[in-house]
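Hi team,

As requested, here is the filled-out complex form for the flavin mononucleotide run. I kept the field names the same as last time so the parser does not choke. Let me know if anything looks off before we queue the next batch.

— J.
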Amino acid sequence: MDMIENVLLQRSSVRSYDNTKKIPQKDMDTILRAIQQSPTYISGQQYSVIVIDDEQKKKDMFEWTTGRSGEGQQHILDCSAFLLFLIDFNKISRISAYENMPLEITNYMEGLFIGTVDVGIGAEAATVCAESLGYGTVAIGAVRRCVKEIIQGYNLPKYTFPLLGLCIGYPKEHLGPKPRLAMNTFAHYNEYKLHDFEKAIEEENKAISVYYGNDEGDQAWSRFVASFYEKGYWKNLSSLYKEQGFDIK
Ligand SMILES: Cc1cc2nc3c(=O)[nH]c(=O)nc-3n(C[C@H](O)[C@H](O)[C@H](O)COP(=O)(O)O)c2cc1C
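And here is what came back:
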């Protein structure tokens, strides 16, 4: 019960870390075991993790993930370990070769979905485990900004794809739980029905403004979300899937 109250329900992303400390190997082993014991589609384990705790390698990741604005993600430098999650059908291709069988699922969206879900579930296991051990975490989707650099920098073979990062470190501050949209806009019983969603947007805008100590009247949250998805971004990704062997039909 303590774990639910103190870890799951209090969790928030941590972006400020004491960068002077290392994670003891025993704790990292526990986190890796927790990831590995997560549910995985058909027991196939279509994912892998690279633990990056080398200072130069974290610096490379910081630089690669920095966008055109030049504003980098300092937490990538300051965390103690950066877990890089990969979709990994390279191992599946070895199993197929071992069984002398072709591999075709990598040519379908289904292959990418399988790997993506495996990575997502594994990343959540890492988050819960690391937070339970007293560390802070933040997921890093910006690794998809620099897929090419990561593939080259880590010599990633065909049928792998870097999908998500996770910073783990010693938290300097916890912002506390960030407000979410009203429960009835997200959880549905036996049907899908959005009740009064515009009101829920207004409430979320207000709650997030209060959370960040801004003017309660602003629409910063809905404006941010809508602007983020206004146009496509990282448009080179589909050609990179192809280069990595995911020739999606
Ligand atoms: C797939 C994914 C990618 C994310 N990428 C980033 C990122 O690149 N940088 C960052 O600072 N936070 C990132 N986050 C963290 C979200 O911004 C954060 O979870 C969200 O604002 C909700 O806040 P909370 O985690 O504190 O509840 C990511 C989260 C997810 C699930």
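Two things worth flagging: The radius of gyration is 20 Å. Residues 178-218 form one domain.

Thanks,
J.
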